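Hello forum,

I keep getting stuck at the same step: I have a sequence, I want structure tokens, and every attempt I make locally crashes halfway through. Rather than fight my setup again tonight, could one of you with a working pipeline run this one for me? It's a single chain of 267 residues.
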Amino acid sequence: MTRVFTLTAALFLSTAAMAEEMRMAVTTSFENSGLADVLLPAIKADLDIDLQLLVVGTGQAIKLGEAGDVDAILVHSKAAETAFVASGHGTHRREIMYNDFVILGPTADPAAIAQDTKVVDAMQRIAAAQPAFVSRGDNSGTHLAELALWKAADLDAAGFGDWYHATGSGMGAALNTAAGLNAYILADRASWLNFGNKADLALLFAGDPMLFNQYAYLPVNPQKQPHVRNDLAMKLEAWLVGPHAKALINGYSINDEPLFVFNATDP
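Reply #2:
Ran it on my machine without issues. Output:
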């Protein structure tokens, strides 16, 4: 009888521990920034949640949310996020933090974009010079931002020639490709600062308001996906907009340069 009770108790404790596991889809740029390594131990310590990250592009993260394969998503493409909530797949959208996109390229800057003050001018110079350019090409938030910049410059990437390399890969892999080709690329500042294989690449353009890069948290709607852990998703959200997360996000830097700015808002 004692052995049966002990086994039952062990199974109960194991089930209880598993109940505190949560799955969240996050962008590769978030993972490549290194911030996850700072936040996850704090989340475990403060909330006793084992947060499992599925690292994908924004487009794939949204698909995982729509399928109910994750409990929440953390992404950076406002139009896609708004559509996710409007279609009923997400309960709401909560802004958490931001950084900015930057254009990287060869130190010699053959397209001469470093002299520009507007990002549309920089994009037009790149298209005119046709140096090697690496695109994520994966329907991620960064890829969608890049396509929006080409469009704002009255250009269509679909018509570009062999100089335009769509990799279909995450931020880290795309940066490695750009380093290997000595190519231009749009990246988020955090991934760039945390990138070790810079080769001959340099940050050539930044500062235009069009390069603003907002990250938002979206819990999956339990009315569409009853099995999701909305209780844990809401518990995590409360933490992400709280003082400990704010301190960790604002305090995360590389070479004394902050990678993100906390700006949590009401739903």
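Residues 2-98+212-262 form a domain with the D-Maltodextrin-Binding Protein; domain 2 fold (CATH 3.40.190.10). If your local run keeps crashing, start a new thread with the error log.
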